[in-house]
Amino acid sequence: MFYAHFLNSIIMFYPQINCFEMRVGLKGKMFFKLAAWLPAIIMAVIISSFSGQESDQSQGLSDRVAGYIIDAADAAGIIDAGGENRAAYVEKLQFTIRKGAHMTEYALFTCTVLFGFYVNGLRSARLYLMGISVTFIYAMSDEIHQLFVPGRSGQFADVLIDTSGGLIAILLLMKWRSNEGKNTKKDV
């Protein structure tokens, strides 16, 4: 009884204490901290599977996505993709799609890495620095992996493009958090 009353008084006077951690115990807390890395691991596997595609397979996926976009723009009357124009549009759009996909998947990867670090107690600038560092290191390892895939090559420029996707995610999160702080100050 005294123990329950003591815990309730701590929770009442110190709301910043995480009640979940108090209830699950040490094993549950450790499990939760390890499980927080699962989204980052899943994203790393997804990225690796895309990077493991041979060039023909990767090219075909990009062509299909570009084709869908060109067909939609043609149907909307934005462009004239009739005849040989379609192939030219697909070729022009393909680079943007490929690099945009890289940036997007690495932005998501960075968010999942930040989540893992956040759950494990990292805060402020160190959180973002560790997140972008892990993203950069993983992007380098991914490009090295591509050196061993037939028809693919590892490019340092791609490491920078991938890392820039992570950096954009961090900047957006920082902007969102700063706006969130401003909104709560107005509400008070």
What does the secondary structure layout of this molecule look like, with pairings?
Blueprint: H1 2-13, H2 19-35, H3 38-51, H4 55-75, H5 85-119, H6 124-146, H7 156-187
Helix pairs in contact: 3-5, 3-6, 4-5, 5-6, 5-7, 6-7
Jot down its keywords.
mainly alpha, disordered N terminus, 7 helices, 188 residues
Write structural notes for this entry:
With 188 residues, the protein is an all-alpha fold. Helices cover 82% and strands 0% of the residues. α3 packs antiparallel against α5 (85-119), α3 (38-51) runs parallel beside α6 and α4 (55-75) crosses α5 (85-119). Residues 1-17 have low confidence and may be disordered.
Poorly predicted residue ranges: 1-17
Please provide the ordered H/E string of secondary-structure elements: HHHHHHH
Rg estimate, integer Å: 23 Å
Number of domains: 1
Ends: how far apart? 37 Å
Number of strands: 0
Shape: globular
For the largest beta-sheet, the strand count, sense and barrel status come to: none
Which strand-content bin applies to the residues?
A: under 5%
Helix/strand structural class: mainly alpha
Determine the mean pLDDT: 85
Helix fraction bin: over 70%
The total count of helices amounts to 7
In short:
The protein is mostly helical and 188 residues long. The protein has helices at residues 2-13, 19-35, 38-51, 55-75, 85-119, 124-146, 156-187. Helix 3 runs antiparallel to helix 5, helix 3 (38-51) packs parallel to helix 6 (124-146) and helix 5 crosses helix 6.
